[in-house]
Write a structure and sequence with these properties.
Elements lengths: L4 H4 L4 H11 L3 H11 L4 H8 L3 H15 L4 H18 L7
Length: about 100
């Protein structure tokens, strides 16, 4: 059975919009990070977002520098950590 886009979403659309705002991501940076969270490669991200692979890598490199991370794995951890912080601040039971 093929999985749909909704099956791969990590955050609800509302939660993702809030998290993108908290992280101060541009629209395209948010698109790249969302694809990254779904486990896509640079090539898959480029195809999905209709941009070149070097453009995807430029977005990623700028995000790495901005958040002080070394690679895509650390970027993913950073995004989840920010989400968890937000959850803890509002008393969300998932944050425990």
């Amino acid at each position: 059975m093929e999985s749909t886009l909704m099956d791969k979403r990590v955050f609800t659309p509302q939660a993702w919009a809030e998290l993108k705002r908290d992280l101060a991501l541009s629209r395209r940076q948010g698109d790249v990070v969302e694809q990254l969270l779904q486990g896509h490669s640079d090539k898959q991200i480029a195809r999905e977002l209709q941009m070149s692979v070097p453009t995807v890598r430029t977005h990623l490199c700028r995000l790495f520098a901005r958040f002080g991370v070394e690679d895509r794995g650390e970027l993913i951890v950073h995004v989840y950590a920010k989400s968890r912080e937000k959850c803890q601040a509002c008393g969300c039971p998932r944050a425990r």
